[in-house]
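Onboarding guide, step 5: your first structure request.
Type a short instruction followed by the sequence, for example:

Predict the 3D structure of this protein.
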Amino acid sequence: MQGICERLDRTCVLLDVQATEKEMIIRAMVEALAHIGYVSDVPQQVQDVIAREKLGSTCIGSGCAVPHAHSVGLRETSLAAVRLAEPLACETPDGQPVDLFFLMVGPPHHAATHLKLLSKLARLLHDEHLRTDLRSASDAEQFIQAICRREN
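The system replies with structure tokens like these:
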């Protein structure tokens, strides 16, 4: 199974984004995935992720959130990431605002892969050193390499 590193294209890592609403962040990540051909219906994908968010916050604490959804029409599970310039207040277990967002979208028939990747990403994001590296990465390549070093 491809891991997080192999699924996170550097063009889908958006750093120091200015955003004031979670939906803006989700749309930016979906549009990045659409730009490289992983998503064909941006409005539907945004709607699917927002619908999932309404079921319960995907903010996992320590300044991180992992919005995700299964969507018809996708070929594989894909990821995008945003690091915000200023943290966003969200419903989090620890009350901390969020500045690192990872979007995971995939087809319904890839549910097992989706859950494995989601679990691995959540585990990685609980590593304080990784979060520090992600917050200080100067570009998308450094951001991805920080994840790759800890994933393998």
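Each response can be followed by summary notes, for example: Strands lie at 8-17, 59-61, 64-65, 68-70, 78-88, 98-106.
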